[in-house]
Amino acid sequence: MAGLFSRYFPLIAWLLFISFASSDNFNAGNTSRIIGPLILWVFPNTSIETLGVVHLITRKAAHFTEYAILAFFAARAFRTSPRQSIANRWFLISLALVIVYALLDEYHQSFVPSRTGTIYDSLIDIAGGLTALLIIRRRHNPARRFN
User: Fold this and answer.
1) Which residue, 34, 81, 79, 84, is CA-closest to 55?
2) pLDDT digits over 81-135, tens only?
3) Fewer CB within 10 Å, N- or C-terminus of the chain?
4) 47-91 per-position pLDDT tens digit
C-alpha cells in the first residue's frame, strides 16, 4: 500500500496543481504582476512591448514545463507499476494522460472568465509531455534508436 501511495501521490498532486493553475489565480493579469516587476528589476530599461513578449514566452514555457513534469510523474508511476500490462505500456498510458489532461485543462479554462482555452496551448502542453517522455524512454532504453 505504501508503494501505491508513493507511486501515485506525486502524479495526483501534480494533476491537482495543474487544475489550480487553470483557475483565475494564474490568469495573465495576475502573472504579469510578478513577471513584469521582476524583468524591470533585472532590466530596468525594458520597453512595454518587450515586457509583453517576455510575459507571453514565460507563460508558454510554463505550459511546456508543467506538462513535462506531469509526464515525468506519470512515467514514474506507470513504469514501476506491479501490473505488468501497465508497466509494459507506460509510455502510451503516460502520453494518453498528458493529451487528455491538456485538452480537458484548456476546455476548463474556456469557462473561466479571466482565462482563454486554446488548442494551441494544448499543443504546447502535449509537446512538453511528449518531450519528457521521449527523454525518459531514451534514458531508460539507450539501445533504442530514433531513426
Assistant:
1) 34
2) 989 999 999 999 999 999 999 999 999 888 888 778 789 999 999 999 999 999 9
3) C
4) 888 888 888 888 889 999 999 999 999 999 999 898 999 999 999
Helix (H) or strand (E) holding 84: helix 84-88
Give the span between the Cα atoms of 116 and 30, in whole angstroms.
14
Report the phi/psi class of residue 117: left, alpha or beta, with left for phi > 0 and alpha for psi in -120 to 50: beta
Amino acid at 140: H
Task: Please give the angle made by the CA atoms of 126, 72 and 137, to the nearest 5 degrees.
Answer: 85
Closest CA to 17 of 51, 83, 65: 65
* The C-alpha cell that represents 131 in the structure block: 518531450
Residues 84, 75: Cα–Cα separation, whole Å: 14
pLDDT at residue 147 tops 70:
no
Confidence of residue 31 (pLDDT cuts 50, 70, 90): low
Contacts of 82 (CB under 8 A, 6+ apart): 3
Amino acid in the structure at residue 111: F
